[in-house]
């Protein structure tokens, strides 16, 4: 799917795919951040053609006037939740960090052990950390490459 600037957007249809969404009591009062999040969803759905400009304007007005979570939810009940490009990039960045930090930490520890034992022996020993570096590093490299953001189409 493409939004107005022709960048791909992933549609998340199931509530389980929306970690930022928790069940909320419909009578709970909403904040300006809640209203803005709803307007962002309307904007994304308008960008892919689910809403026309007039309907977007009417729903935006209803979102700005909403006082409770129930009123705010009514604005987007017939629209799927869409992940914005910024949210997707943040998710990819977090996943990369989640894979790289343990790898780099363990490799630093192994290099430290190798360096310490080499210095204690008085000469550089066989560079044995290369085996875990490659054994863990190659799959990590390919996993990180598979998370690369897809190139965006230009008009």
**Average of pLDDT:** 82
The amount of beta strand, in percent, is under 5%
Q: What's the number of extended β-strand segments?
A: 2
Number of helices: 5
- Pattern of helices and strands: EHHHEHH
Helix content bin: 55-70%
Main pleated-sheet profile:
2 strands, antiparallel
What overall form do the CA principal axes indicate? elongated
- Total separate domains: 2
Low-confidence stretches: 1-19, 151-155
- From the helix content, strand content and strand pairing, which structural class follows? mainly alpha
Radius of gyration: 24 Å
Our measurement of the CA-to-CA distance between the termini, rounded to an integer number of angstroms, reads: 14 Å
Q: Within the largest sheet, what's the order of strands? A: 1-2
């Amino acid at each position: 799917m493409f939004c107005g600037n022709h960048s791909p957007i992933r549609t998340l249809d199931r509530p389980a795919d929306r970690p930022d969404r928790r069940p909320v009591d419909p009578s709970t009062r909403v904040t300006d951040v809640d209203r803005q999040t709803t307007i962002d969803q309307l904007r994304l759905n308008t960008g892919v053609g689910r809403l026309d400009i007039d309907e977007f304007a009417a729903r935006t007005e209803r979102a700005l006037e909403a006082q409770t979570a129930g009123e705010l939810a009514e604005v987007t009940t017939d629209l799927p939740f869409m992940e914005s490009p910024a949210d997707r990039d943040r998710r990819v960045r977090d996943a990369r960090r989640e894979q790289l930090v343990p790898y780099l930490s363990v490799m630093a520890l192994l290099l430290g052990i190798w360096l310490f034992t080499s210095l204690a022996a008085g000469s550089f020993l066989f560079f044995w950390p290369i085996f875990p570096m490659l054994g863990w590093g190659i799959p990590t490299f390919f996993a990180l490459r598979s998370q690369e953001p897809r190139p965006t189409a230009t008009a």
